[in-house]
Amino acid sequence: MQLIRRITDSDIAGGTPELLDLISRYGSRGVLLDDMLNTAMMYMSKTNLYKLPGGGINEGENIKDAFLREVKEETGYSAEIIHELGYIEEHKKRNNFLQFSYCFIAQAHDSSSNTMLSESELELGMVVKWMTLDKALEVMNYSILNCDDYSTKFMILRDKTILEKSMVVLNRESLIGK
Q1: Which of 55, 145, 148, 158 qualifies as a FRET site for 61, CA 20 to 30 Å off?
Q2: Which residues pair with 51 in a beta bridge?
Q3: Does any domain span residue 177?
Q4: Over the chain, what is the mean pLDDT?
């Protein structure tokens, strides 16, 4: 899998990029599409911000299985991965925290279950909202402008990067833009 982007403190606050060596967490996340090419965005009402579905990889879990599990837990949809995008490194120097996120595009199948949100996701008021890819990029740009939390800025920039990369891939494969 190829590197999509390295996000560092310099992307958030300027200055010289500094890379960390020790990986703190692995995640799997990405774009979930319905039959109309709308994407699932996770809206957090408490913070009025959006993110893509995804989360941490459990010990011994395959990166693809982790993404599909997270999609099911957060959206209630089963899905099939249709494209591997690559991975993103988040070098949070201030927190001494390095996260690798493996990124995918998936096709949603019928919703077959309720969401299974974590306690923290419930506290954030997390719900799935379906929207066009252009609208998803618009809400991510809004989130970037209206977020003042250091770690959350990394998450938003990471997810915006995944959306942009997905749009390039989907345009190249002539799935959107016609």
Answers
A1: 158
A2: 42
A3: no
A4: 93
Domains identified in the chain, total number = 1
What whole-number distance in Å separates Cα of residue 178 and Cα of residue 53? 26
CB neighbourhood size of 64 (10 A): 14
Domain that holds residue 106: 3-172
As a whole number of angstroms, the distance between CA 101 and CA 30 comes to 9
Tokens describing residue 113: 């279950």
Which two three-digit tokens encode residue 104? 């995918």
- 3-class DSSP state of 101: strand
**Tens-place pLDDT, residues 130-172:** 999 999 999 999 999 989 999 999 999 999 999 999 999 998 8
pLDDT one-digit tens code per residue, 2-44? 999 999 999 999 999 999 999 999 999 999 999 999 999 999 9
Distance CA(54)–CA(90), nearest Å, equals 15
CATH number of the domain within which 165 lies? 3.90.79.10
Rounded to an integer, what distance in angstroms lies between the CA atom of residue 123 and that of residue 37?
29
**Which DSSP category does 166 fall into?**
H
Q: What is the rounded CA–CA span in Å between residue 17 and residue 8?
A: 6
Say what the pLDDT of residue 125 is: 87
Give the pTM.
0.92
Here the tokens at position 55 are: 């989360």
